[in-house]
Amino acid sequence: MKIQKILFSTKFKELNEDSLRSLFVLKKTGLKQIILLFVIPIDEVGFVPYGGFLKDEEKKLRKIAEDTLNKWKEIIIENGIDCKILIEIGNLVQKTILVAEDEKVDIIAVGKRKRSLLGKFNFISQNLVDLVRCSKKPVLVSKFVSKYEYKGEFITRLNNSVFSNPLIATDWSEPVSKSLKILSANSAVIDKAYICHVVEDKLIKDRSNDEITRIKNESIKRLNEYSDILRKNNIRSETILLFGKANNEIINISREKNASMIMIGTTGKDLFEEMLLGSVSYRIMESSELPILMIS
Amino acid sequence: MQEVMNLGEMLPLWSGIPFLLMLLSIALFPLILPKFWHHNFEKVSIFLAFLLAIPFITIYKGEGLHEILHVVLADYLPFIILLWALYAVSGGILLKGILRGTPVVNTCILIIGTILASWMGTTGAAMLLIRPLIKANNFRKNKVHVFVFFIFLVANMGGCLTPLGDPPLFMGFLHGVSFFWTLHLLPQLLTGAVILLVIFFVLDSYYYKKENIKPPSEKEKRILLKLEGTHNFIFLAGIIASVLLSGIIDLGKVNTFGVHRPVMDWVRDISLIVIGILSLKTTSGKIYRRNSFSWAPILEVAYLFIGIFVTMVPCLLMLKAGENGAFAPLMKVVKEPYHYFWITGALSSFLDNTPTYLTFFSSALGSLYQGIPEVQAVHLLMTGGNANYLKAISAGAVFFGAVTYIGNAPNFMVRSIAEEHGVNMPGFLAYIIKYSLIYLIPTMIIITLIFY
Asked: Does a structural domain hold residue A42?
């Protein structure tokens, strides 16, 4: 699955020009068009109780969007990629998904809320959760500059080479085959890929050694099968089997291997389950400093 | 009941000031300070509700508290639950396809909308059809009149036949008007709708001919209509059944915080919530996205109407007190059905039609059946020789809601969506002068001459 068309849905503050530039590398593998989408929130301009629509406010927001998007368009075209600007009014998530469907884009790129002042957690916005939950297209959560604490040190990371060392985190569910297809079709920009699986503690608790060995062997076999697929597409890869708590282990290994991006599947749970019961993919999206490609 | 009437007789006229401020806020803020209003309307509404509630409870203690709890539990709560359920269910129905906005097609959409409005609410019908109508008329130069007549017919008049159609009628239902009684308004609706549809067709044909626009491409010209989320019609039937049964079955009353409500009212409210949740759970997210579904309009109504319902408590009590209350001079002037039709209508044009309906509904009860308990008085109003009064109040509230953008909640939603899609809708005054005074008011005069 070549990435030929990207929908870049922006709120300006969250996804800056640098994030946009980090996608240009995909031109090598066939990126043809970037669609820049800005959604004027309907709450800002519409449904004024008994009043209708704030036309002047809409014009003002449209003008600001046009100025910024036109500058970005010039940069994109200078880099030999076609560009289209769309300014819509409505709900950010609804419009992003509709435009992605109508324009038949390959991935959606979106921004991420900045780290909280407390510095401890990276809170993801509700819009992002909704988008990932509802989108059938892969969603790239871009984080050009990330600050995080690792082994007692505060580190600032620039994610300017998103596709060079992707880490696929798999729980054996369907999205992994999509991840492999994406990497295979874009091998020219990949230096080395990592494929990891975490055997959760709770899965092996109270199991016999024989059973644990069986699970381990089966997991290694599956990981090797994935690795073979990448090798056939000229992508160097390394398989990693881990034991522990999935989100912690995935984040730790991504740091240890200096991965450039984490690719992970979403479970398709509903909002209630996702938020209340938690999900590995959402926790990683929330707490990792790396760009995340969420695949449904 | 005696205590209630006494309170109504005791209340001074100025106790209606918070209600007046609430209505003036709705009427003036969107025109004068739209941005402030957009971001602060809920604070204004809650503030005014407290402005009434705190002194009212302080002065009248238990009785004051009871009146406010009664209006919240017996009027506001079911009102907002019904609107929410209708909004949720109708938002799950999507009309897909390419229509071409010719005069015939536009007229057909208006007819369908007018019919649907009584069964899925004016808001539901308007939300279902407004986007296909906008899409169908994209190629038209002169199309403002299409959306104005849509407001006249679909967002207002069409909703007059059942309590589901328009909120004022549901308030009547909650106060004892039977579900099918409103079907008595069919002759008035047919008269008004036929007049307006004929005018619309002539007007639209004139503009269509004048525009002389080349037809859209062959692909666009094909009419491929498809309804998605049709299972929501089952939920719609469930809503109708829930409301209908709550008016038929009597399982006694239950005391909630001192407010005696029929058990069936609670059953209805809970059923409506369950129906709404089932609809949301079983409808594809794709449909909501294509409908640009948002909870914003219903939240706005919820915030505004808590202010309206609480602040209107003294006014309703004074009106129910009839000629013994502070509104005695008004009672002496408003005597005939046509008086009620026009005064309910005139106020519904500039104030929201739900409180206006309740005001004159109470006024009629106070004037015609002073001292008689509400249940009996409403029964007499429906079945006795005074039924024309109720028809006049009902039709006045529903029909005149279309005279201005602020007469009925769906009006501003239609305006907002049309403007969002680039339709240059007329301003507040232009809408009245260029459309309501020319087309709607003469229609109302004809209805008065025939029926009242």
From this structure: yes
Pick B35's closest partner by Cβ from A47, A57, A91.
Answer: A57
Which of A44, A50, A59, A273 to substitute to test the interface with B, most B CBs within 10 Å?
A50
Looking at the domain assignment, is residue A65 inside a domain?
yes
Choose the closest CB to A53 out of B41, B288, B415: B415
Are residues A12 and A67 both part of a single domain?
yes
Nearest CA in chain B to A136: B286
Q: Which of A111, A130, A160 is at the close of a domain?
A: A111
Q: Is residue A264 part of a domain?
A: yes
Mutate to test the interface with A, among B38, B87, B290, B301 (most CBs of A within 10 A): B38
A137 lies in some domain = no
What residue numbers bound the domain in which A84 lies?
A: 1-111
**Distance in Å, alpha carbon of B293 to nearest chain A alpha carbon:** 9
Contact A49 B41 (CB under 8 A): yes
Going by C-beta distance under 8 Å and a sequence separation of 6 or more, which residues neighbour residue B61? none
Question: For residue A137, what pLDDT is reported?
Answer: 92
Residues A92 and A15 in one domain: yes
Chain B nearest-CA distance from A91, in A, is 7
Residues in A touching B405 (Cβ below 8 Å): 50-52
- Look at residue B377 and tell me whether its pLDDT is greater than 70: yes
Pair (A203, A272) in one structural domain? yes
Contact (CB, 8 A) for A40 and A61? yes
As for how many domains chain A has, the answer is: 2
Q: Do A161 and A293 fall within a single domain?
A: yes
CA B405 to chain A, closest CA, distance in angstroms equals 7
Q: How much is the pLDDT for A275?
A: 54
Task: Examine the domain organization and report whether A178 and A293 are in the same domain.
Answer: yes
The predicted structure's pLDDT at residue B416: 82
Whether residue B285 lies within 8 A of chain A, CB to CB, comes out as: yes
Note whether B29 contacts A: Cβ–Cβ < 8 A: yes
User: pLDDT tens digit string along B46-74?
Assistant: 999 999 999 999 999 889 999 999 889 98
